[in-house]
Design a protein that fits this description.
By secondary structure, this protein is an alpha+beta fold. It has a single domain, classed as Nuclear Transport Factor 2, Chain: A (Roll), CATH 3.10.450.50. It has three helices and seven strands, in the order αβαβαβββββ. Strands 1, 2, 3, 4, 5, 6 and 7 form a seven-stranded mixed sheet that branches.
Amino acid sequence: MDLARIVELNAIYARVIDTEQLEEWPKLFHDPCLYKLTTADNVAKGFEGGLIYADTRGMLEDRISSLRRVNIYESQRYRHIVGLPVVLGETGGEAEVETPFLIVRIMREGQMDVFATGCYRDRIKPDASGALRFSQRIVVCDSRRFDTLVAIPF
């Protein structure tokens, strides 16, 4: 699979979150899909659950809908710094990819903190039009602590 296209998919992913175009986020996934937010500690212990778990695009859309209409959380934004992906393997046109990330959280008053570091563990394949989409994105955070409600997708 073309590495440049994987880099572009990751750049688009970060941009739709960082620019608060959250309704575009689910469109980057196949349906069905798997999106999970977990910790490196949970992965090491073999725990399958996650802080966020969705296995259809509809569940991702519902998450964004609830963020926009229901959830109450302190105003904040993210800025992703996404490293270069490493293709770990490819089977049947689907690439297994790992990509490091760093997320800075910017609060309403301007305070900035390193919010999360970790890696994305992905399965990526083209859709019917040839555009790359995530069939799986497991967000593995290095820390097992989060200092606020996890509302916005990572």
